[in-house]
Write a structure and sequence with these properties.
The complex is a heterodimer. By secondary structure, chain A is mainly alpha-helical. Chain A has two domains: 109 residues, Cytochrome c-like domain (Cytochrome Bc1 Complex, Chain D, domain 2), CATH 1.10.760.10; 122 residues, Cytochrome Bc1 Complex, Chain D, domain 2, CATH 1.10.760. Chain A has eleven helices and two strands. Chain A has a two-stranded antiparallel sheet with strand order 1-2. About 2% of the residues of chain A have low confidence. Chain B has a single domain, classed as Cupredoxins -  blue copper proteins (Immunoglobulin-like, Sandwich), CATH 2.60.40. The longest helix of chain B has 22 residues. Helices cover 11% and strands 39% of the residues of chain B. The chains are: A mainly alpha, B mainly beta. Chains A and B meet through loops of A and loops of B.
Protein backbone atom coordinates (compact mmCIF):
# COMPACT_ATOMS: atom_id res chain seq x y z
CA UNK A 1 0.00 0.00 0.00
CA UNK A 2 2.73 2.43 0.95
CA UNK A 3 4.62 1.74 -2.31
CA UNK A 4 1.42 2.42 -4.30
CA UNK A 5 0.97 5.84 -2.65
CA UNK A 6 4.61 6.90 -3.02
CA UNK A 7 4.78 5.88 -6.68
CA UNK A 8 1.59 7.87 -7.35
CA UNK A 9 3.17 10.84 -5.61
CA UNK A 10 6.34 10.42 -7.65
CA UNK A 11 4.35 10.30 -10.90
CA UNK A 12 2.41 13.39 -9.86
CA UNK A 13 5.58 15.36 -9.17
CA UNK A 14 7.16 14.18 -12.42
CA UNK A 15 4.11 15.30 -14.39
CA UNK A 16 4.23 18.73 -12.74
CA UNK A 17 7.92 19.06 -13.56
CA UNK A 18 7.47 18.06 -17.22
CA UNK A 19 4.48 20.31 -17.90
CA UNK A 20 6.21 23.72 -17.98
CA UNK A 21 8.89 22.26 -20.30
CA UNK A 22 6.21 21.13 -22.73
CA UNK A 23 4.47 24.51 -22.59
CA UNK A 24 7.63 26.55 -23.25
CA UNK A 25 8.79 24.31 -26.12
CA UNK A 26 5.53 25.02 -27.92
CA UNK A 27 5.60 28.73 -27.16
CA UNK A 28 9.15 29.47 -28.40
CA UNK A 29 11.76 31.24 -26.34
CA UNK A 30 14.84 33.35 -26.56
CA UNK A 31 17.93 33.07 -24.39
CA UNK A 32 20.31 35.95 -23.87
CA UNK A 33 22.73 35.33 -21.06
CA UNK A 34 20.55 34.68 -18.03
CA UNK A 35 17.46 36.20 -19.63
CA UNK A 36 14.68 34.13 -21.14
CA UNK A 37 12.14 35.79 -23.38
CA UNK A 38 8.67 34.45 -24.24
CA UNK A 39 6.61 34.92 -27.38
CA UNK A 40 3.35 35.59 -25.53
CA UNK A 41 4.72 38.69 -23.82
CA UNK A 42 6.67 39.64 -26.94
CA UNK A 43 3.53 39.65 -29.05
CA UNK A 44 1.91 42.30 -26.83
CA UNK A 45 5.00 44.48 -27.08
CA UNK A 46 5.38 44.01 -30.85
CA UNK A 47 1.87 45.20 -31.57
CA UNK A 48 2.41 48.20 -29.32
CA UNK A 49 5.89 49.38 -30.42
CA UNK A 50 7.04 47.67 -33.61
CA UNK A 51 4.32 46.93 -36.08
CA UNK A 52 3.96 50.53 -37.30
CA UNK A 53 7.15 50.06 -39.29
CA UNK A 54 7.72 46.33 -39.36
CA UNK A 55 4.12 45.53 -40.29
CA UNK A 56 1.30 43.32 -39.13
CA UNK A 57 2.97 40.31 -40.74
CA UNK A 58 6.50 41.27 -39.73
CA UNK A 59 7.50 41.67 -43.38
CA UNK A 60 8.62 45.29 -43.16
CA UNK A 61 5.43 46.62 -44.79
CA UNK A 62 4.16 48.65 -41.87
CA UNK A 63 2.14 51.83 -42.50
CA UNK A 64 5.28 53.92 -41.99
CA UNK A 65 7.32 51.96 -44.51
CA UNK A 66 6.46 54.02 -47.61
CA UNK A 67 8.00 57.09 -45.93
CA UNK A 68 11.25 55.43 -44.99
CA UNK A 69 14.40 55.55 -47.12
CA UNK A 70 16.04 52.55 -45.48
CA UNK A 71 13.19 50.06 -45.36
CA UNK A 72 12.29 48.29 -42.10
CA UNK A 73 13.66 44.79 -41.65
CA UNK A 74 11.60 41.99 -43.18
CA UNK A 75 11.47 39.35 -40.42
CA UNK A 76 9.74 36.85 -42.71
CA UNK A 77 12.83 36.63 -44.94
CA UNK A 78 15.07 36.23 -41.86
CA UNK A 79 18.06 37.93 -43.50
CA UNK A 80 19.79 40.14 -40.93
CA UNK A 81 22.62 42.66 -41.18
CA UNK A 82 24.16 42.62 -37.73
CA UNK A 83 25.27 39.17 -36.67
CA UNK A 84 28.06 37.26 -34.98
CA UNK A 85 27.49 34.35 -37.36
CA UNK A 86 28.71 33.59 -40.92
CA UNK A 87 27.00 34.99 -44.00
CA UNK A 88 23.81 33.13 -44.94
CA UNK A 89 23.18 31.90 -41.40
CA UNK A 90 20.74 33.04 -38.74
CA UNK A 91 21.84 35.49 -36.04
CA UNK A 92 21.99 34.51 -32.37
CA UNK A 93 19.37 35.74 -29.93
CA UNK A 94 22.01 38.05 -28.49
CA UNK A 95 22.59 39.62 -31.93
CA UNK A 96 18.91 40.51 -32.25
CA UNK A 97 18.76 41.71 -28.64
CA UNK A 98 21.78 43.99 -29.11
CA UNK A 99 20.49 45.38 -32.41
CA UNK A 100 17.24 46.30 -30.71
CA UNK A 101 18.99 47.99 -27.83
CA UNK A 102 21.46 49.86 -30.02
CA UNK A 103 19.12 50.89 -32.79
CA UNK A 104 20.54 51.40 -36.29
CA UNK A 105 22.38 54.67 -36.75
CA UNK A 106 21.49 56.63 -39.90
CA UNK A 107 18.18 54.79 -40.22
CA UNK A 108 14.75 55.10 -38.67
CA UNK A 109 15.25 52.20 -36.27
CA UNK A 110 15.61 53.85 -32.88
CA UNK A 111 17.38 52.52 -29.86
CA UNK A 112 14.89 50.62 -27.71
CA UNK A 113 17.00 50.83 -24.59
CA UNK A 114 14.08 52.40 -22.75
CA UNK A 115 12.29 49.05 -22.83
CA UNK A 116 13.43 46.72 -20.07
CA UNK A 117 15.88 43.89 -20.70
CA UNK A 118 13.03 41.43 -20.23
CA UNK A 119 10.87 43.33 -22.74
CA UNK A 120 13.56 43.14 -25.37
CA UNK A 121 14.17 39.45 -24.72
CA UNK A 122 10.45 38.79 -25.14
CA UNK A 123 10.44 40.74 -28.40
CA UNK A 124 13.34 38.64 -29.73
CA UNK A 125 11.34 35.49 -28.99
CA UNK A 126 8.30 36.84 -30.86
CA UNK A 127 10.26 38.14 -33.85
CA UNK A 128 11.61 34.64 -34.39
CA UNK A 129 8.07 33.37 -35.00
CA UNK A 130 7.70 35.33 -38.26
CA UNK A 131 9.99 33.13 -40.34
CA UNK A 132 9.81 29.34 -40.76
CA UNK A 133 13.60 29.32 -41.05
CA UNK A 134 13.91 29.49 -37.26
CA UNK A 135 12.21 26.09 -37.05
CA UNK A 136 14.45 24.36 -39.58
CA UNK A 137 17.81 26.08 -39.04
CA UNK A 138 19.75 26.89 -35.93
CA UNK A 139 21.73 30.08 -35.47
CA UNK A 140 25.11 29.92 -37.23
CA UNK A 141 28.30 29.09 -35.36
CA UNK A 142 29.72 32.11 -33.56
CA UNK A 143 32.67 33.53 -35.47
CA UNK A 144 35.90 33.56 -33.52
CA UNK A 145 37.32 37.00 -32.83
CA UNK A 146 40.95 36.62 -31.70
CA UNK A 147 42.36 39.00 -29.12
CA UNK A 148 43.29 42.39 -30.55
CA UNK A 149 47.04 42.61 -31.13
CA UNK A 150 49.15 45.63 -30.18
CA UNK A 151 48.40 48.78 -32.13
CA UNK A 152 51.43 49.81 -34.22
CA UNK A 153 52.09 51.99 -37.24
CA UNK A 154 53.07 48.85 -39.16
CA UNK A 155 49.65 47.39 -38.41
CA UNK A 156 47.96 50.51 -39.77
CA UNK A 157 50.12 50.50 -42.91
CA UNK A 158 49.48 46.81 -43.51
CA UNK A 159 45.76 47.48 -43.11
CA UNK A 160 46.10 50.11 -45.81
CA UNK A 161 47.63 47.53 -48.15
CA UNK A 162 44.74 45.18 -47.46
CA UNK A 163 42.24 47.96 -48.19
CA UNK A 164 43.84 48.20 -51.65
CA UNK A 165 44.26 44.47 -52.21
CA UNK A 166 40.71 43.52 -51.19
CA UNK A 167 39.41 46.39 -53.33
CA UNK A 168 37.32 47.92 -50.54
CA UNK A 169 37.91 51.25 -52.26
CA UNK A 170 35.75 50.17 -55.21
CA UNK A 171 32.68 50.94 -53.10
CA UNK A 172 34.04 52.86 -50.11
CA UNK A 173 36.40 55.10 -52.09
CA UNK A 174 40.12 55.72 -51.55
CA UNK A 175 39.44 58.00 -48.58
CA UNK A 176 36.55 55.89 -47.32
CA UNK A 177 33.98 58.57 -48.15
CA UNK A 178 31.57 56.10 -49.79
CA UNK A 179 32.36 57.53 -53.22
CA UNK A 180 34.12 54.63 -54.93
CA UNK A 181 33.55 53.85 -58.65
CA UNK A 182 30.83 51.29 -57.87
CA UNK A 183 29.18 53.27 -55.07
CA UNK A 184 26.48 54.96 -57.14
CA UNK A 185 25.33 51.65 -58.64
CA UNK A 186 24.78 49.76 -55.39
CA UNK A 187 21.40 48.21 -54.63
CA UNK A 188 20.35 46.06 -51.69
CA UNK A 189 18.66 42.69 -52.02
CA UNK A 190 15.28 44.36 -52.62
CA UNK A 191 16.74 46.37 -55.52
CA UNK A 192 16.58 49.57 -53.44
CA UNK A 193 19.49 52.00 -53.86
CA UNK A 194 21.89 51.90 -50.92
CA UNK A 195 25.06 53.83 -50.05
CA UNK A 196 28.29 52.42 -48.61
CA UNK A 197 29.44 53.62 -45.20
CA UNK A 198 31.29 56.94 -45.20
CA UNK A 199 34.27 56.58 -42.84
CA UNK A 200 35.23 60.24 -43.13
CA UNK A 201 31.90 61.33 -41.68
CA UNK A 202 32.79 59.27 -38.63
CA UNK A 203 29.29 58.29 -37.55
CA UNK A 204 28.67 55.11 -35.59
CA UNK A 205 28.56 51.88 -37.62
CA UNK A 206 25.21 50.23 -38.12
CA UNK A 207 26.29 47.25 -36.04
CA UNK A 208 28.05 48.86 -33.08
CA UNK A 209 30.90 51.20 -32.25
CA UNK A 210 33.80 49.10 -30.95
CA UNK A 211 36.79 47.66 -32.81
CA UNK A 212 35.33 44.21 -32.28
CA UNK A 213 32.07 45.26 -33.93
CA UNK A 214 34.05 46.57 -36.91
CA UNK A 215 35.95 43.28 -37.10
CA UNK A 216 32.69 41.34 -37.16
CA UNK A 217 31.18 43.54 -39.86
CA UNK A 218 33.59 42.56 -42.60
CA UNK A 219 33.98 38.97 -41.42
CA UNK A 220 30.25 38.20 -41.33
CA UNK A 221 29.19 40.59 -44.08
CA UNK A 222 25.94 42.55 -43.80
CA UNK A 223 23.40 40.13 -45.29
CA UNK A 224 20.77 41.76 -47.46
CA UNK A 225 23.19 44.54 -48.51
CA UNK A 226 26.07 44.65 -51.00
CA UNK A 227 28.59 44.42 -48.12
CA UNK A 228 30.03 40.88 -48.44
CA UNK A 229 31.79 38.59 -46.03
CA UNK A 230 35.59 38.52 -46.29
CA UNK A 231 35.87 35.54 -43.94
CA UNK A 232 37.31 33.23 -46.61
CA UNK A 233 39.84 35.71 -47.98
CA UNK A 234 41.40 37.43 -44.97
CA UNK A 235 43.47 35.87 -42.18
CA UNK A 236 42.31 36.65 -38.62
CA UNK A 237 45.58 38.46 -37.70
CA UNK A 238 45.39 40.54 -40.84
CA UNK A 239 41.79 41.41 -40.10
CA UNK A 240 42.91 43.36 -37.03
CA UNK A 241 45.34 45.35 -39.18
CA UNK A 242 42.44 46.31 -41.40
CA UNK A 243 40.44 47.42 -38.36
CA UNK A 244 43.30 49.69 -37.24
CA UNK A 245 43.59 51.19 -40.72
CA UNK A 246 39.85 51.78 -41.03
CA UNK A 247 39.88 53.79 -37.79
CA UNK A 248 42.38 56.17 -39.40
CA UNK A 249 39.88 56.82 -42.18
CA UNK A 250 37.47 58.17 -39.55
CA UNK A 251 39.24 61.53 -39.41
CA UNK A 252 36.50 63.20 -37.37
CA UNK A 253 36.21 60.46 -34.73
CA UNK A 254 38.76 60.37 -31.91
CA UNK A 255 40.44 56.99 -31.54
CA UNK A 256 43.82 55.61 -30.40
CA UNK A 257 44.46 54.54 -33.98
CA UNK A 258 43.84 58.04 -35.32
CA UNK A 259 46.03 59.55 -32.62
CA UNK A 260 48.90 57.15 -33.39
CA UNK A 261 48.58 57.75 -37.12
CA UNK A 262 48.46 61.51 -36.56
CA UNK A 263 51.75 61.32 -34.67
CA UNK A 264 53.54 60.24 -37.85
CA UNK A 265 54.44 62.81 -40.50
CA UNK A 266 52.62 60.98 -43.29
CA UNK A 267 49.58 60.45 -41.12
CA UNK A 268 49.39 64.03 -39.91
CA UNK A 269 49.47 65.35 -43.48
CA UNK A 270 46.80 62.92 -44.57
CA UNK A 271 44.45 63.73 -41.70
CA UNK A 272 44.92 67.48 -42.15
CA UNK A 273 44.08 67.23 -45.84
CA UNK A 274 40.88 65.32 -45.14
CA UNK A 275 39.52 67.28 -42.21
CA UNK A 276 37.43 70.37 -42.66
CA UNK A 277 38.31 73.04 -40.11
CA UNK A 278 36.92 76.50 -39.63
CA UNK A 279 34.33 78.41 -37.62
CA UNK A 280 30.73 77.18 -37.28
CA UNK A 281 29.39 80.19 -39.21
CA UNK A 282 31.33 79.06 -42.23
CA UNK A 283 33.81 81.87 -42.47
CA UNK A 284 37.40 80.73 -42.55
CA UNK A 285 36.61 77.19 -43.64
CA UNK A 286 39.85 75.51 -44.63
CA UNK A 287 39.92 72.15 -46.27
CA UNK B 1 0.17 -28.50 -93.58
CA UNK B 2 3.95 -28.43 -93.26
CA UNK B 3 4.18 -25.13 -95.18
CA UNK B 4 1.59 -23.53 -92.96
CA UNK B 5 3.44 -24.71 -89.86
CA UNK B 6 6.71 -23.36 -91.30
CA UNK B 7 5.08 -20.05 -92.10
CA UNK B 8 3.68 -19.97 -88.57
CA UNK B 9 7.12 -20.58 -87.04
CA UNK B 10 8.78 -17.99 -89.26
CA UNK B 11 6.04 -15.52 -88.38
CA UNK B 12 6.56 -16.12 -84.67
CA UNK B 13 10.34 -15.70 -85.06
CA UNK B 14 9.88 -12.43 -86.92
CA UNK B 15 7.54 -11.16 -84.22
CA UNK B 16 10.03 -12.17 -81.52
CA UNK B 17 12.79 -10.39 -83.42
CA UNK B 18 10.68 -7.26 -83.60
CA UNK B 19 10.01 -7.40 -79.87
CA UNK B 20 13.73 -7.73 -79.19
CA UNK B 21 14.51 -4.78 -81.46
CA UNK B 22 12.00 -2.53 -79.67
CA UNK B 23 13.38 -3.35 -76.22
CA UNK B 24 16.98 -2.95 -77.38
CA UNK B 25 16.37 0.78 -77.87
CA UNK B 26 17.12 3.49 -75.22
CA UNK B 27 15.36 3.07 -71.84
CA UNK B 28 12.28 5.31 -71.99
CA UNK B 29 11.11 7.98 -74.34
CA UNK B 30 12.51 11.36 -75.34
CA UNK B 31 10.79 14.72 -75.35
CA UNK B 32 12.44 17.14 -77.75
CA UNK B 33 11.53 20.32 -79.52
CA UNK B 34 12.36 23.94 -80.10
CA UNK B 35 11.81 27.15 -78.18
CA UNK B 36 11.11 30.18 -80.35
CA UNK B 37 9.73 33.68 -79.92
CA UNK B 38 7.30 35.82 -81.88
CA UNK B 39 7.40 39.59 -82.07
CA UNK B 40 10.41 41.84 -81.65
CA UNK B 41 12.57 41.36 -78.57
CA UNK B 42 14.14 44.37 -76.85
CA UNK B 43 17.49 45.43 -78.29
CA UNK B 44 20.43 44.31 -76.18
CA UNK B 45 22.68 47.18 -75.15
CA UNK B 46 26.49 47.15 -75.31
CA UNK B 47 28.15 47.09 -71.89
CA UNK B 48 30.59 49.84 -70.93
CA UNK B 49 33.36 48.23 -68.87
CA UNK B 50 35.60 51.31 -68.75
CA UNK B 51 35.42 51.33 -64.94
CA UNK B 52 37.13 47.92 -64.96
CA UNK B 53 40.01 48.21 -67.44
CA UNK B 54 41.30 44.68 -66.78
CA UNK B 55 38.00 43.32 -68.11
CA UNK B 56 37.39 45.95 -70.80
CA UNK B 57 40.59 44.96 -72.58
CA UNK B 58 39.45 41.31 -72.80
CA UNK B 59 36.65 42.28 -75.19
CA UNK B 60 37.72 43.67 -78.55
CA UNK B 61 34.12 44.71 -79.17
CA UNK B 62 32.02 45.37 -76.09
CA UNK B 63 29.71 42.50 -75.13
CA UNK B 64 25.98 43.17 -74.87
CA UNK B 65 23.47 42.53 -72.11
CA UNK B 66 21.97 39.03 -72.16
CA UNK B 67 18.38 39.49 -70.98
CA UNK B 68 17.20 38.06 -74.31
CA UNK B 69 19.56 35.96 -76.41
CA UNK B 70 18.27 34.78 -79.77
CA UNK B 71 19.42 32.41 -82.50
CA UNK B 72 18.63 31.72 -86.16
CA UNK B 73 15.00 31.13 -87.08
CA UNK B 74 13.57 33.13 -84.16
CA UNK B 75 15.20 30.72 -81.72
CA UNK B 76 15.12 31.73 -78.06
CA UNK B 77 18.29 30.76 -76.18
CA UNK B 78 19.03 30.41 -72.45
CA UNK B 79 15.62 28.84 -71.84
CA UNK B 80 15.62 26.17 -69.13
CA UNK B 81 13.36 23.31 -70.25
CA UNK B 82 12.71 20.79 -67.47
CA UNK B 83 10.29 18.20 -66.13
CA UNK B 84 8.31 20.01 -63.43
CA UNK B 85 5.86 17.19 -62.62
CA UNK B 86 5.62 13.45 -63.16
CA UNK B 87 9.23 12.51 -62.43
CA UNK B 88 10.46 11.56 -58.95
CA UNK B 89 12.93 13.81 -57.12
CA UNK B 90 16.50 12.64 -57.61
CA UNK B 91 19.59 12.67 -55.39
CA UNK B 92 22.20 15.14 -56.54
CA UNK B 93 24.99 13.88 -58.80
CA UNK B 94 28.49 13.88 -57.39
CA UNK B 95 30.09 16.21 -59.92
CA UNK B 96 29.95 19.92 -59.23
CA UNK B 97 28.12 22.50 -61.30
CA UNK B 98 30.64 25.13 -62.35
CA UNK B 99 30.03 28.87 -62.65
CA UNK B 100 32.82 31.12 -63.83
CA UNK B 101 33.49 34.85 -63.67
CA UNK B 102 35.59 35.72 -66.72
CA UNK B 103 35.97 39.00 -68.54
CA UNK B 104 33.50 40.42 -65.96
CA UNK B 105 30.83 38.11 -67.31
CA UNK B 106 29.08 35.11 -65.78
CA UNK B 107 29.72 31.97 -67.80
CA UNK B 108 27.31 30.37 -68.47
CA UNK B 109 24.63 33.05 -68.23
CA UNK B 110 22.14 30.47 -66.96
CA UNK B 111 23.42 27.51 -64.92
CA UNK B 112 21.06 24.62 -64.17
CA UNK B 113 21.84 22.10 -61.46
CA UNK B 114 20.05 19.96 -58.89
CA UNK B 115 18.95 20.48 -55.30
CA UNK B 116 21.95 19.75 -52.99
CA UNK B 117 24.35 19.48 -55.92
CA UNK B 118 27.72 21.10 -55.23
CA UNK B 119 28.11 24.49 -56.88
CA UNK B 120 31.63 25.78 -57.59
CA UNK B 121 32.12 29.46 -58.41
CA UNK B 122 35.52 30.47 -59.78
CA UNK B 123 37.05 33.91 -60.38
CA UNK B 124 39.26 33.87 -63.48
CA UNK B 125 39.70 37.64 -63.63
CA UNK B 126 42.35 40.08 -62.36
CA UNK B 127 39.77 41.97 -60.32
CA UNK B 128 37.81 41.06 -57.22
CA UNK B 129 34.27 39.93 -57.77
CA UNK B 130 31.54 39.99 -55.16
CA UNK B 131 29.05 37.33 -56.23
CA UNK B 132 25.66 37.84 -54.61
CA UNK B 133 22.94 35.31 -55.49
CA UNK B 134 19.50 36.67 -54.54
CA UNK B 135 17.27 33.76 -53.54
CA UNK B 136 13.87 34.24 -51.91
CA UNK B 137 13.37 30.65 -50.74
CA UNK B 138 16.92 29.45 -50.17
CA UNK B 139 19.25 31.23 -47.78
CA UNK B 140 20.97 34.36 -49.04
CA UNK B 141 24.75 34.75 -48.68
CA UNK B 142 27.23 37.29 -50.02
CA UNK B 143 30.98 36.63 -50.32
CA UNK B 144 33.94 38.56 -51.68
CA UNK B 145 36.26 36.71 -54.07
CA UNK B 146 39.60 38.40 -54.81
CA UNK B 147 41.59 37.28 -57.86
CA UNK B 148 43.49 34.05 -57.28
CA UNK B 149 41.32 32.92 -54.38
CA UNK B 150 39.86 29.42 -54.17
CA UNK B 151 36.46 28.74 -55.77
CA UNK B 152 33.43 29.38 -53.58
CA UNK B 153 31.74 26.04 -52.86
CA UNK B 154 28.12 25.91 -51.73
CA UNK B 155 24.77 24.29 -52.47
CA UNK B 156 21.05 25.02 -52.35
CA UNK B 157 18.57 22.73 -50.64
CA UNK B 158 15.32 23.97 -52.23
CA UNK B 159 14.30 24.23 -55.91
CA UNK B 160 14.26 27.85 -57.08
CA UNK B 161 15.24 30.17 -59.93
CA UNK B 162 17.82 32.51 -58.41
CA UNK B 163 19.06 35.76 -60.03
CA UNK B 164 22.77 36.42 -59.47
CA UNK B 165 24.49 39.79 -59.45
CA UNK B 166 27.94 41.19 -58.66
CA UNK B 167 27.95 44.06 -56.17
CA UNK B 168 31.14 45.55 -57.65
CA UNK B 169 30.23 45.27 -61.36
CA UNK B 170 26.59 46.27 -61.82
CA UNK B 171 26.35 44.99 -65.42
CA UNK B 172 27.01 41.38 -64.40
CA UNK B 173 23.84 39.30 -64.24
CA UNK B 174 23.31 35.55 -64.25
CA UNK B 175 20.80 32.95 -63.14
CA UNK B 176 20.86 29.70 -61.19
CA UNK B 177 18.13 27.14 -61.92
CA UNK B 178 18.00 24.76 -58.95
CA UNK B 179 15.93 21.77 -60.05
CA UNK B 180 14.54 18.64 -58.41
CA UNK B 181 15.59 16.03 -60.97
CA UNK B 182 18.08 15.44 -63.78
CA UNK B 183 15.65 15.95 -66.68
CA UNK B 184 16.58 19.44 -67.87
CA UNK B 185 18.22 21.17 -70.80
CA UNK B 186 19.13 24.74 -71.67
CA UNK B 187 18.48 25.91 -75.22
CA UNK B 188 21.25 27.46 -77.27
CA UNK B 189 21.90 28.16 -80.95
CA UNK B 190 18.84 26.98 -82.84
CA UNK B 191 16.69 26.83 -79.69
CA UNK B 192 16.48 23.03 -79.69
CA UNK B 193 16.33 20.85 -76.56
CA UNK B 194 16.13 17.15 -75.82
CA UNK B 195 15.01 15.39 -72.62
CA UNK B 196 15.86 11.68 -72.98
CA UNK B 197 15.39 8.65 -70.72
CA UNK B 198 11.84 9.36 -69.57
CA UNK B 199 10.04 6.17 -68.41
CA UNK B 200 6.40 5.77 -69.51
CA UNK B 201 4.08 8.15 -67.67
CA UNK B 202 2.44 11.58 -67.67
CA UNK B 203 4.83 14.55 -67.47
CA UNK B 204 4.61 18.33 -67.31
CA UNK B 205 7.38 20.00 -69.29
CA UNK B 206 8.09 23.61 -68.28
CA UNK B 207 10.14 26.16 -70.20
CA UNK B 208 11.51 29.12 -68.16
CA UNK B 209 13.04 32.30 -69.57
CA UNK B 210 14.45 35.05 -67.35
CA UNK B 211 12.59 37.86 -69.11
CA UNK B 212 9.52 36.11 -70.53
CA UNK B 213 8.43 33.93 -67.61
CA UNK B 214 7.48 30.29 -67.94
CA UNK B 215 5.11 28.04 -69.89
CA UNK B 216 4.12 24.43 -69.33
CA UNK B 217 2.78 21.63 -71.49
CA UNK B 218 1.70 18.11 -70.55
CA UNK B 219 3.00 15.10 -72.45
CA UNK B 220 2.43 11.37 -72.05
CA UNK B 221 5.16 8.84 -72.78
CA UNK B 222 3.86 5.36 -73.46
CA UNK B 223 6.84 3.52 -74.93
CA UNK B 224 10.16 4.34 -76.50
CA UNK B 225 8.80 6.73 -79.13
CA UNK B 226 10.03 10.33 -79.25
CA UNK B 227 7.55 13.10 -78.45
CA UNK B 228 7.76 16.60 -79.82
CA UNK B 229 6.92 19.63 -77.65
CA UNK B 230 7.53 23.19 -78.83
CA UNK B 231 7.30 26.45 -76.90
CA UNK B 232 6.65 29.89 -78.33
CA UNK B 233 7.23 32.96 -76.15
CA UNK B 234 5.82 36.41 -76.89
CA UNK B 235 8.70 38.84 -77.09
CA UNK B 236 8.36 42.07 -75.09
CA UNK B 237 9.72 45.32 -76.51
CA UNK B 238 11.36 46.32 -73.19
Amino acid sequence: MRTMNSSKLFLGIAALLVMPLVVSAQEGESHIGKLSGHTGAGKQLYFRYCWGCHGYRGDGNGENAPYLNILPRNFVAATFKCRSTPTGTLPTDADLYNSMGRGFNNSNMPSWIELTDQNRADLVAFIKTFSPRWKTDKAGDLIKVPAEPKLTVESIKHGGELFQKLECWKCHGQEGRGDGPSASTLTDSNDQPIRPYNFAAGSRFKCGSTNEDLYKIFITGLDGTPMPSFADVIKPEEAWDLVHFLRTLQVTHKSPELALWGSTKEGAEQIASRRITGTPTGSGIKQ
Amino acid sequence: MMRAKLAYIVGLAALAACAVMVHAGPSGGTVSGKVTYEGTPAKQKPIDMSKEPSCAKQHATPITTETVVTGPGNALDNVVVYVSAGAPDEAAPSQAAKFEQKGCQYIPHVLAFQVNQTLEIANADQTSHNIHPLPKVNREWNKSQPPGSAPIVDKYDKPEFIPVKCNIHPWMHGNFAVLKNSHYAITEGDGGFSLPNLPPGKYTITAWHESYGDQSQDVTISGGEPKSVNFVFKAKPY
